Amino acid sequence: MTTEALARAESLIATIPDFPDPGILFRDISPLLADAAAMRAVVDAVIRPFADEFDVVAGVEARGFLLAGAVAVAAGVGMAPIRKAGKLPRPAASVDYALEYGTAAIEMSGDLAPGTRVLLVDDILATGGTLRAGQQLLAELGLVLAGTAVIMELGGLGGQAACGPVHSVFRV
Fold first, then answer.
1. What is the pLDDT of residue 112?
2. Catalytic: which of 4, 8, 83, 100?
């Protein structure tokens, strides 16, 4: 993987103003996901700091699933989904977390043995609430957090303080 490949991958992330609400700059990773070379560069960059330190990749719904699946295949390990409340048929644990206006919950099944080393991934780190909840969920299930990684970190929103350290491939 080269610096040029990562620069090209980053250039594919689209910024959509006023979505989903006025004043929000939404970072759309869909064009990056659609490009095999760009996706491979990002997946390799996610894995590099944690190589051989994790047994499973956990991805947070929904775009984190896309990254987690690709990272798991590239690393030769399994993938475990972290879902919004009410989406799993056999949730073993649930964690509530604060949103800007209210709360939400995420859940995970109990399919992984306690002590399993898990790399937690998502697409974007903003305030860190969702990833922090994911970290708490892993701990509640007796899983070992091998690391936390995202494609892009939005600076100035406190995400690293909330759930750091987080490995970010790109920062804006």
1. 98
2. 100
Catalytic residue among 27, 63, 83, 132, which? 63
Task: Name 139's bridge partners.
Answer: none
Note the pLDDT of residue 98: 85
pTM, rounded to two decimals: 0.95
Domain-embedded: residue 62 = yes
Q: Is 57 exposed, middle or buried (0-12, 13-18, 19+ CB in 10 A)?
A: buried
CATH assignment of the domain containing 62: 3.40.50.2020
Is 117 considered catalytic here? no
CB atoms within 10 A of CB 19: 11
Domain count for the chain: 1
Edge-to-edge strand order for the sheet containing 78-84? Answer: 91-99, 102-109, 78-84, 56-60, 117-125, 144-153, 167-171
What is the 8-class DSSP label of residue 49?
G
Amino acid at site 151: I
Q: Answer yes or no: 140 catalytic.
A: no
- Please name the residue ranges forming H helices in 48-88: 63-75
Residue among 28, 27, 35 at smallest CA distance from 9: 35
Ranges of residues in the chain whose predicted pLDDT is under 50 = none
3-state secondary structure of 89: coil
